[in-house]
Amino acid sequence: MGQERAYWVAWSQISGVGPILLGRLQQHFGTLAAAWEATEAQLKEVEGFGFQTLSKVIQQRSRLHPEKFLQQHQQQNPHFWTPADPEYPRLLLEIPSPPPILYYRGEVDLRENLGQKPTVGIVGTRQPSEYGLRWTRQISMALAKNGFTVVSGLADGIDTESHSATIKAGGRTLAVLGTGVDVVYPSKNKELYKQILPNGLVLSEYPSKTPPDRTHFPRRNRIIAGLSRAVLVMEAPIKSGALITASYANEFGRDIYALPGRLDDYPSQGCLKLISQGAFPILRELDELLKMLGAIPELDSIEAASPPQQLTLPDLSPELQQVMNVLSSEALPFDFIVQQTAMAPGLVSSALLQLELIGLVSQRPGMRYQRC
């Protein structure tokens, strides 16, 4: 798994190869290490690898040594996770485009990463009304006092209010940035940024010193949605980044809640549209909202804390039995299974396929496998 981490970092440096293509590479070759050694002809077999992308891969890969580059990268970016790391947030592994590298600063709570602590996204306009701010404050504080972690984007307006209110209530909050984790944007949120670090995390898919760029913020919205079990849209015009986050949340199968407003209020038009499309309206009874959010099932994580049980299935070959002995009802990453079995990735991939075909194993998003 340590070696695979280096290849996640290396592949992320190849221009034209984004999260979706990386997922296809891993699916096709079993590991990104194997994909790194693949020939041009072999890479052509992967969907999405056209002539231009292949040319970039062949050219740039020849100048990059994954292990050496990992060491250099860590000097500038000491804290990050890749999908090869057991600490990588499991909710992000469920989405089609998990960040190849997720940088972080602050205090890590592994319960959040493992899906054992509920996380709720709160997003909205940068120019909210007093009505939107008031309800954001009340809901954020209620969530914090009831053990929820609040996820937002550190932007002006609703984001800022959700982070601030959560901290005032003694809760944890995660801020997903469209810059490097060491760059505060907007700059007036520097004090809030400092308050978040001991009470949560700042996260980004961009390396340190990355300045703000208008193309980064819509992309970071998918991470907010991916990290959240549900997304609350407090106030949002029709053309709003908050609606982009809601669209991602809908794509990822997350519950969406929206704060109703008056028909002639510009900041409420996006929320009213979401409600008309099936989003849950946020009503005055916050206890009911908390009850609904609390009913969202946590990820199955109990088995992950204990070693997998050894199965004895006499009709399995030794290779299949070895793989089954590692698996549990908790979905485990492919690289972890390879590490635990000490088998070649190709053999593990073949064994998993056979076990799937006979109904003993199921594959989950993000190249994870679990016993049926």
What does it look like?
The protein has helices spanning 2-12, 19-29, 32-36, 40-44, 51-61, 66-76, 90-93, 110-113, 130-145, 158-168, 190-196, 216-227, 241-251, 269-276, 286-294, 318-326, 334-341, 345-357, and strands spanning 80-81, 102-106, 119-123, 149-152, 173-176, 200-204, 230-233, 255-258, 280-281, 332-333, 361-364, 368-371. It is an alpha/beta fold. Strand 11 and strand 12 (368-371) form a beta hairpin. Helix 9 runs parallel beside helix 10 and helix 12 packs across helix 13. The chain is globular, with a radius of gyration of 22 Å. Mean pLDDT is 88; it is low at 301-314.
What would the keywords be for this entry?
globular, 372 residues, 12% strand, 45% helix, 18 helices, three-stranded antiparallel sheet, alpha/beta, single chain
